[in-house]
Amino acid sequence: MRVAVVAVNYGSHELLRRYLSWAFAVPGYDGPDIVIVDNRRTDEDRVAITQLAREAGWHLVATDANLGFGAGVNLGAHAAWELGADVIVVVNPDLEIARPDVDALAAAVAEDPETLVAPTIVGRAGRPSARLGRIDMRRAFIKLIDEGEGPLWVSGACLGIHRRLW
Fold first, then answer.
1. What is the rounded CA–CA span in Å between residue 165 and residue 2?
2. pLDDT tens string 62-85
3. Phi-psi region of 84 (alpha: psi -120 to 50; beta: other; left: phi over 0)
């Protein structure tokens, strides 16, 4: 199973350097491919992310404008599928995630390719800030527990998905 991590950048190269440091290309690196979609903020940011991607051995998809998060994820997913990925794990640039956590998400998706998986995201104060929940359509409220009625909600800050479900 081939895995790719997809992140959308908008002037966040320093965060990507910090939180994906485990994914820097080193001799014998056998981890997931890293696909960065750069939603160009400034010329200086473009130079910085281009240099970082080259240094780290990441795949850079450079846009000419800020296409937004959703369009950026779509471009990153397309690039990951072209690289041969079976599974992608989408991460926000400001999300600290360890390699074993990426592996665990990918393994859960590989076990059931028809399932979208997402971790509980914990903020600096140690409280969950995003996880699987239900949307209460009557009160326009997201409940961060998987009970009750209403459509399921998952945060785009981090999720894993198989190519088949995509």
1. 15
2. 999 999 999 999 999 999 999 999
3. left
Strand partners, 143: 134
E strand spans, 39-97? 59-62, 87-91
Report how far residue 85's alpha carbon sits from residue 162's, in angstroms, rounded to the nearest whole number: 9
pTM: 0.85
Return the bridge partners of 89, or none. Answer: 5, 160
Amino acid letter for position 25: A
* CB 66, CB 8: distance < 8 Å: no
Q: What are phi and psi of 99, to 5 degrees?
A: -55, -45
| Amino acid at residue number 86 | D
Tell me the one-letter amino acid at 55.
Answer: E
